[in-house]
Records
---
Amino acid sequence: MLRTAHPPAPLPALPALLLAILSVQGGAAFAKVLFTQLGPVGATGLRIGLAAAVLSVIFRPALRRLTAAQWRALLPYGVVLGAMNLLYYLSLARIPLGLAVTLEFVGPLLLAAVTSRQRRDLLWVLLAALGVLLIAPWRGAGLDGLGMVLALLAGACWAGYIVLGGRVSQVVSSGVGVTTGMIVATLAVLPAVLISGAWTVVTPPLLGAGALLAVLSSAIPFTLELIALRTLPARTFSVLLSLEPVVAALFGWAVLHEVLRASQWAAVVLVMIASAGGAWTARQARAERPDPQTTSGPGV
């Protein structure tokens, strides 16, 4: 059975994912401005809604031409995308950023462990898990129970986003997939935004800051992640995402002058080793894959 080949990705998978992580952390610098004035629900709605608008102008998806099979992949992807962002921002209202990012990563980490097929994959997962535990600010104030539960639920949505995003990347182009997903996500969080009343305090400066946040934290990273999901296995993608709390810690040190403890620097090293190991595993798996031209029988 012949399969329609996808056009080559504009970026290789690994650079695309690394750029996505950097873009998310850059957008985090602007999130606090919106967060303090709009609250977590309002900031989520503005970020997702403006991202959907920007992406719609860029990619102009022909929604009416999408097939039923494509919609079956896109609808759950968009709903999970909206829930993930809303739960994450709600958790940030109750617990510190570092703890929220760390707890959210439990979802992708468990996904990597469940889908792992080789011992070397489990090694990278364990190293990443150890690094995440070391970098988390487990001591001190801010350990709000509900906030931690919300972060864990956001992590569960993150794991679902990885799986569903992989399916979306196989049925539509990255631009159409992420744009349609953001439109669905906007509709999914719209009731919460309307109930919160945050839309009544939106001003032109807030719209400008929201547009920048939408581009850095949603439009760019989600598009790049779909590109990465075309070729990276879900378990490798999950391990590489362990760079999220590491990059957040380094941004805090370089930009906010936050001092890292020795255990947190050890976490940085462990997570970077795990991410590099995950990339190496993916490359080795592709190198060991048999050539289809030499293994396919006649008539295939």
Note: Confidence is low (pLDDT under 50) at residues 1-9, 291-300.
---
Amino acid sequence: MKWAFVLCAVVALSECLLQVPLEKGKSAREALEEQGLWEEYRVKYPYNPISKFDQRFAVAGEPMTNDADLAYYGIISIGTPPQSFKVIFDSGSSNLWVPSIYCNSPACNNHHKFNPTTSSTYRRNGGSLKIQYGTGSMTGILGYDTVMVGGLAVRNQIFGLSQTEAPFMQHMRADGILGLAYPRLSASGATPVFDNMMREGLVTQDIFSVYLSRHSQQGSVVTFGGVDPNHYYGPITWIPLSNELYWQITVDSVTVNGQVVACNGGCQAIVDTGTSLIVGPQSSISNINSHVGASSQNGDYRVDCNNIAQMPDVTFHIHGQEFTIPASAYVRQSQYYGCRTGFGGGGDSLWILGDVFIRQYYSIFSRSQNMVGLAQAR
């Protein structure tokens, strides 16, 4: 399979890193902007990123939301012979699910559908799966099959086969989701893929790491079993988790030009590959955007594209270290809507460090130590 490869390096011990390249495709927002449908869509399906982390759904159902800016996906396969799917590798959720032949929602009809009748290794589970979205839901059934991830064969992996899907999935390039958070979060008690990798001894270390390229559509990758030094430089800062459900850490403060503008006295943040923006409480996000010179327009924070070089850095102070996001990283440019920042509001106290943050900082997720490692991305 040309989309999966194994990288072996000689270190103190022989270490093999299993990697899945991620492609940065066109986001749902970009596709809708091209069609002139974005304003209608955003009113009909408002973005509520923090709903994904509503603790009320932490056991009974796993909330998701209509993040129209998600663009990174990788390819996995399910079944024998293998059926390929584009999935979002999501550190903010725990279930694996893909569209199936049992689904006739518009969101399924323009994506690949899993056909269990053509897989010799498929087994029914008999259970059901329901995942709550901010603007709808995904429902389906559970089954077992061989899942190939980065060249690894994860046998008897439980996964969801969708029967209905929320409308916003119709506009996304990815077919489904592969969750990488803790098993306690998993809907229907389904064992997450990475937990099965660890249990079966398929990875050298109980670690996965994510690199999101800043400069091209190619080059992004999720690595299972360790870290890839080709994707970062300098020291790794290891941060203990404050909640072993999501990849949740404590942020000490957020500053602009040395002035605390948010998270004064500390706040909680989730490092989430399944959210595109940096998200925080509305008042804090408004304050950050005000300090960088952005103005609110129709739910976005707009800036003059000619001013990017003069705009200040935004610095997150975490575990005694500074993690700085320059304007070139937090400003997004659209040929249809100009320039807007990557800071979005939502929720009351929780923060999400999404792709805007992860593009700057190579992110390492250690299940063995229950820590997140951050290092300057190349």
Note: Residues 162 and 194 are 21 Å apart (CA to CA).
